[in-house]
């Protein structure tokens, strides 16, 4: 069994206990760090889309909601509320993915506390999604209803 090291690996220089900043200097300092951070973030986003069925479902519903919003010609306040609501659902799904991955990394065995943590994370996504449906109905429902009523009157 390998000896544990006193210094964690793969830490940015500013988090390194030794304070060795040479890693940044070799890669172009802060500009490289910003680019790397963006790359890691995009990689995490792509991982969630690629591996999580629920994330793809949320994105599909997002496209449908955006199309409906364009169809009913929402005003900017309604768009802002919808975008924030959509963002909340997607972020909740990503945090759920984080919780599952982190907890799975702790042990390959069943543990009741891990089950509770995963269930609560999934419940948070469910609650966020249900509330977003309510917001969507409140924003999109009335103009869709008016368009449907006008369409049914126009049909002979």
Explain what the structure shows.
With 156 residues, this protein is mainly alpha-helical. The chain has 2 domains: 10-51; 53-154, Helix Hairpins (Orthogonal Bundle). It is 79% helix and 0% strand. It has 5 helices and no strands. The longest helix is centred in the C-terminal third of the chain and has 43 residues, at 112-154. It starts with 21 loop residues before the first helix and ends with a helix. The model has no long low-confidence stretch (mean pLDDT 86).
Helices and strands, with pairings:
Blueprint (H helix, E strand, L loop, with lengths): L21 H6 L1 H23 L1 H20 L3 H31 L5 H43 L2
Helix pairs in contact: 3-4, 3-5, 4-5
Give a nutshell description of this structure.
The protein is built from five helices and no strands. The protein has 156 residues and is mostly helical.
What is the straight-line distance between the termini? 81 Å
Shape: elongated
In CATH terms, what is the architecture of the largest domain? Answer: Orthogonal Bundle
> Can you tell me the CATH class of the largest domain?
Mainly Alpha
Low-confidence stretches: none
Strand content: under 5%
Domain count, please report it. 2
Output the structural class: mainly alpha
Q: Would you give the CATH topology of the largest domain?
A: Helix Hairpins
Q: How many strands appear in the DSSP assignment?
A: 0
Q: Output mean pLDDT.
A: 86
């Amino acid at each position: 069994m390998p000896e544990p090291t006193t210094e964690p690996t793969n830490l940015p220089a500013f988090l390194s206990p030794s304070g060795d900043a040479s890693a940044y200097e070799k890669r172009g300092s802060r500009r490289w760090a910003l680019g790397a951070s963006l790359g890691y973030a995009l990689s995490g986003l792509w991982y969630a889309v690629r591996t999580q069925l629920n994330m793809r479902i949320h994105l599909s519903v997002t496209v449908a909601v955006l199309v409906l919003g364009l169809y009913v010609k929402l005003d900017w306040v309604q768009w802002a509320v919808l975008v924030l609501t959509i963002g909340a659902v997607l972020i909740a799904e990503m945090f759920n993915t984080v919780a599952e991955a982190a907890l799975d990394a702790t042990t390959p065995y069943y543990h009741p506390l891990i089950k509770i943590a995963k269930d609560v994370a999934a419940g948070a996504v469910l609650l966020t999604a249900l509330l977003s449906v309510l917001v969507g109905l409140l924003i999109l429902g009335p103009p869709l209803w008016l368009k449907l009523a006008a369409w049914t009157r126009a049909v002979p």
